[in-house]
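Example 230, ligand flavin mononucleotide.
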Amino acid sequence: MFYETEKNNHGLKYNPYKSIVIPRPIGWISTISHDGIVNLAPFSQFNNLGYDPPYVMFSASTHPDGARNKDSVHNAQMTGEFVVNMATYELREAVSKSSYYLPPEVDEFDYAGLEKAPSVLVKPPRVAASPIHLECVFHQTVVLPGYSINNICNVVIGRVVGVHIRDDVLTADGRIDVLKVRPIARLGYHDYTSVDSIFTMKIDETAFSEQLKAGLGGEAKGKRPRQAAE
Ligand SMILES: Cc1cc2nc3c(=O)[nH]c(=O)nc-3n(C[C@H](O)[C@H](O)[C@H](O)COP(=O)(O)O)c2cc1C
């Protein structure tokens, strides 16, 4: 089959698009308003961009009333900070609950029954029960035009300035134990998946430079020129 996105002429009972770019990791974003009201919401239009420094992005459509941005976007832009909390299988019900449309004055941590943990470099708190957090400072919003007023997308990009990893999800040889973390990811419809299996593929060592090999394997060796001079 073939269909055009502007016409949505796929003829299916359900729009297939959200089941195509999958699985989508979930950025569980905490922010705080100028008035000190904490906000928490999941975004599956979420990913990492670059590593040194790392940036992350989450994309939010306009609020369903079409008249304003979602609270997460508003707060990140107004205060310049947000935190990404790892959305895990264990916390799946709270992730879902934190997505409900609630007035801006409602603290979704309280609503979803979650404890807060303070951040180190930014003001928005972290989800205490989540094993990994990224503290971020706002970098830029890219606005993508929509086919309708409530489908304009605000792609919020933040620079990751601090990373928390709970000790018990690190293996003895210094890797994140992903099966222990069990991140959840979005499929289409009401479906999700979680990481519960891993396979490894070794590269042909001769085909890569030392630097690229280290990058692919995630090795922590090597310093930036600025660090080397210190
Ligand atoms: C798993 C999951 C993923 C979601 N992903 C997105 C997304 O990528 N973009 C978006 O605009 N809304 C997404 N939503 C809906 C938002 O979480 C929801 O609109 C939320 O109320 C926004 O909160 P805020 O206004 O407090 O920022 C998602 C909901 C769930 C449950």
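Summary: The first helix runs from residue 71 to 79.
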